[in-house]
């Protein structure tokens, strides 16, 4: 009996194989762009996290170095200053080229209004020519969103 059943089974037809290939193609067409978007969003989130880390280092710098900023004034702190004072280590740029942020191009603007301090970060690559700006320093660090990051 088993031999009769096995004898009638000849495998998949060409139509069945074609249906499987079409289904796999549809799944791939949906999955590949979604994965690309996830990778890009991860890079953007890493830039935001780095900006927050640099901002926190500037906050620590202003506090521990007893930096005086008059009411209504601001002070710009370069990443190189934060690194040299030991408030932060060099941070790798997550954009995939293996570089770090520019030590002098990446800056934090600390602005004082009464007893409130606001921190605005400018993130730039360390390339001497065609430096890429990821964050323009116009949005306070605590309010950053994915839309603020350019050229991820």
From TrEMBL:
The keyword Membrane applies. Its main location: other. It is found in: Cell surface. It comes from the Bacteria. Gene3D superfamilies: Glycoprotein, Type 4 Pilin (3.30.700.10). Keywords: Competence, Membrane, Transmembrane, Transmembrane helix. Pfam families: N_methyl. The keyword Transmembrane applies. The chain crosses the membrane at residues 12-35. PROSITE patterns: PROKAR_NTER_METHYL (PS00409). NCBIfam families: IV_pilin_GFxxxE (TIGR02532). This is Prepilin-type N-terminal cleavage/methylation domain-containing protein. It comes from Metabacillus endolithicus.
